[in-house]
Specification:
about 280 residues, binds adenosine-5'-triphosphate, alpha/beta, six-stranded mixed beta sheet, binds magnesium ion, single chain, Rossmann fold, five-stranded mixed beta sheet
Amino acid sequence: MEPGGVEVTDLDAGEGGIGSALAGDEPSPPPPSGARGATPAASAVGLTKVYGKGNTRVIALDHVDVAFGAGRLTAIMGPSGSGKSTLLHCMAGLDTVTAGEVRIGDTLISELSDRELTLMRRKRLGFIFQSFNLVPTLTARENIELPLLLGGNRPDQSWEHEVVDTLALDERLTHRPDELSGGQQQRVAVARALVSRPDIIFADEPTGNLDSRSGDEVLGFLRRAVDEWHQTVVMVTHDARAASFADIVIFLRDGHIVDRIESPTADLVLDRIRALEV
Ligand SMILES: Nc1ncnc2c1ncn2[C@@H]1O[C@H](COP(=O)(O)OP(=O)(O)OP(=O)(O)O)[C@@H](O)[C@H]1O
Ligand SMILES: [Mg+2]
């Protein structure tokens, strides 16, 4: 593991998967038998992403090593432009990498054909985009069900109802995105990512447009996805309180992982943000 790399392993998964994570430089006890997450849910080695050329060249990610343990909620923090969205997009196979390797479980995604990658994304990954990416001509319900329908699957009605109910979208299902507020669009984007019960949910500022009550509901839902349904969540946030819902927080700056906190509280996260000036 490169300096600055972070390993987030799931070695204490017995009680809902909220375990202590171990940095690469700490001694590693053997995982308990039957522990989930011996293989990280997603990982990258030497992940480098360069945009543009010449004067416009930007190194968005610079040799990032990271492993997201299965059954854990990881928050990614860092200043604007530090590479958070790029990291999420590269991990989910939504963007190509300039160098390095990205794996979902054991699968090296660069070795997949476009079709295999699309199928894997549909079956195993949910993505909540910073900019929502809703289809403007479809209603909220159609947007929510779209990934399932594309995959040829029928929505599980009771599960969809629970998702829609928790996100308070019942009254808005027949509206198109331009008829919804920013917060409502964000909740539709969250529902779309959750409704197929993916193994991994990548969430880019999922509470960025929500008031604190709606934000807490979304965060509580992501927390339940991990604790009750054993999904893995990787969430970008600027909000220390949102980060406190996570099991671990990693901090990005200038395309590098510069720090991490386990079992974060909002105060710990704020202290670390000040210390790092991220
Ligand atoms: N498509 C692109 N073309 C060129 N540069 C890009 C592109 N996407 C991102 N960048 C650059 O890469 C860097 C990292 O961007 P990224 O969107 O990952 O940041 P971020 O940490 O998510 O920021 P924010 O908190 O504002 O969302 C920035 O300097 C950005 O300008
Ligand atoms: Mg971003």
